[in-house]
Each structure stands twice: as C-alpha cells, then as structure tokens.
C-alpha cells in the first residue's frame, strides 16, 4: 500500500503552520470508511477517529504526532465468519520540506539550478520524512498505521486449524501399513512348519 493510492486524504499546508502548532481531527464519513475498508481488504470499518498534532521545529522541519481509534470487521481465515476488533495506536514522525532549487543566471541569460543542501538534519534523532511540497496529507500516516495494526490472521472464537482426517489417523502411517501387510500375508506353499511332519499322501494298504 502506498500513500498515492489511499482512498481518503486531508491536506494541510505546513508552510502556514503557526508557531503554536495545530490540532487536526480526522473522522471519515460512512462512504469514506467503506472505501478505506475496501482498500485495506477487510469486511468493514465501523468507526475511525484520529487526532493529529503538528508543531514547527524549524523553518522547514515539523513534528507530527497522532493517535487513532478504530473498530474493524475482518473475515476469519478458517471459517470466514466476521471477526470484530478494536484497534488503537499512537505514533510520531518528523517531516521536512525540501527547499525548491534556486536558479542563477549565466552571463548569456540561461538559468542554471543551484545544488540543494543536504536533507539530513542532525538536530533530531528521528530520520525526517522528506517532502517535496509543504502541502501534506495528514491522514496518510494514520491510514498506514491502521493497516499495520490489522491482525494478519484473524480467527473467530473457537476456530482452530486441524489436519485432514486421513492424516490424523495413526493407523495409516507407513509403519502401520507395513505391519498390516506382514500380518495379512499367507504362508508360502511347500514349506512345513518346524516340529511338524508333512502329511503323507499315501494311504495305508
């Protein structure tokens, strides 16, 4: 899943962020939740609420903190019955808007791009997410974290994996089959048993 194909977005211009920061609440409509559920590959998204806190760390770097609550319905991997669960999460990221390449003019009037400065900022322990534009989808990271919070193997209560019946029968293992063959095989003709004489074919006179 990539952010470019997400079915829901909430755009915010980081360039206009006040020094005090901003709080943004995310709550998709029922139709938008249905589109998100299809994108996630689940049965339904009954509720989804997120809160995003944005802060300015420097002229081109921003802090992103978010939390979410969601009620989802997934299909059991064994019985396909609906499995309901409540998900929640909190996370943070660092955003950095890359500067637009400035241009300088040659003597002949042709403009040349000026090399950009390094995008790595040593002031933060977190690696910043680099943005080409200050216009940012604040709902994108929430949907990414929601997708990661889903149970990859949802199971209905009481549903268990079990081997096929023929594999669970101990009598059908190779050693049991060999034992059956030994028991069922008849004696070879023409061999007398030890301690017993072969019956005579001649009748007494």
Account of the 3D structure:
It is a single chain. With 205 residues, the chain is α+β, with helices and mostly antiparallel strands. The protein has one domain. 18% of the residues lie in helices and 31% in strands. The chain has four helices and nine strands, in the order E-E-H-E-E-E-E-E-E-E-H-H-H. It has helices at 30-40, 140-149, 165-168, 174-184; strands spanning 11-13, 22-26, 44-56, 61-75, 82-97, 103-105, 111-113, 129-131, 135-137. A five-stranded mixed beta sheet has the order 2-3-4-5-8.
Which descriptors would you attach to this protein?
about 200 residues; alpha+beta; two-stranded antiparallel ribbon; about 20% helix
Brief synopsis:
By secondary structure, the protein is α+β, with helices and mostly antiparallel strands. The protein has 4 helices and 9 strands. The strands form 3 sheets. Strands 2-3-4-5-8 form a 5-stranded mixed sheet.
